[in-house]
Write a structure and sequence with these properties.
- The structure is a single chain.
- The protein contains seven helices and twelve strands.
- By secondary structure, the chain is of the alpha+beta class.
- α1 (about 1-35) runs antiparallel to α2 (about 50-80), α4 crosses α7 and α6 (about 265-280) packs across α7 (about 300-310).
- The relative contact order is 0.09.
- Bound molecules: dinuclear copper ion.
- The site of dinuclear copper ion has 9 residues, from loops.
Length: about 325
Amino acid sequence: MARSIADLYWVMFGAAVVVLAIVVGALVIAGIRFRERPGHQARQYHGNNVLELIWTVVPTLMVISFSVLSFQRLALVNDVDSGTAMTVKAEGKQWVWNFQYPADPKFKLSDGSYLTAAEELHIPVGQKVKIELSSKDVIHAFYVPKLGGQKDAVPGRDTVTWIQADRPGTYSGQCIEFCGTGHADMLLTIVAQNPTDYAAWQDAAVKQANLFNDPAVAKGKQLFTTLACAGCHTVQGLTGGKVGPELTHIMSQKTPIGGIAGLDVNEANLIKWVGNAPSLKPGIVMPVFSNKAGGPLDDDSILAIVKFLETLK
Ligand code: CUA
């Protein structure tokens, strides 16, 4: 859509440059050559039918052709339905874009709902994606300059547009209808991926969202905050223990668990660590938790705590 609009823009720009050159050129030449000066008397003209016909007919033809070209583009811009590969809902609200992926099995979460996201939308490359726009409060406008024209999101009225990325990449967008104090910060990003990358992202995104729907995660969080964990470890916004390492971003950590070479941060290793850290790092102040080694927790509770840790990215 953006390319089609840009093509038309360049045609109009080219025509405007030609018209400007002719008009200004004629004005300058006439002003110099035919001006009144010593020894030369400027001639007086009273109308010229041929000239007047030309500068009436030519601009009229230009305006008509630009109108026809514009209507052709409008048909393309407004055609949201033909060849649509997927439909995404985008809701503008002060001051964020919220996206709802389609009710497709691939986006289905374990609680029966479908994947959602804020500010960043992933789309498959080369496929037409219909965007159903709505607004929760005031008028916003969806605009990703490299992909398409802008479309308003109006409260109480549904509008639609579409985007299609021909090449993989990250495309920046912005709300471009002034919508209040945070308007300038109402950015959005479209990430277009080729089919393999898209499928991989889709799996990972659904898996990550499902983590929060997992009853074990809720149980793990409950255990983490009520047991000894909370007294020693900080998880920003949740616990404030200072004795052990902070765990807020444990899953993004590249250093192995406890700094022990080979003990990469993953579920299996976290289970070992939470169950019996002293067996892996002798002398550590973290006590044994596994009831197999004399600690207070059974395997299910340890797994629940690890499931909760896995949400910390
Ligand atoms: Cu939303 Cu400007």
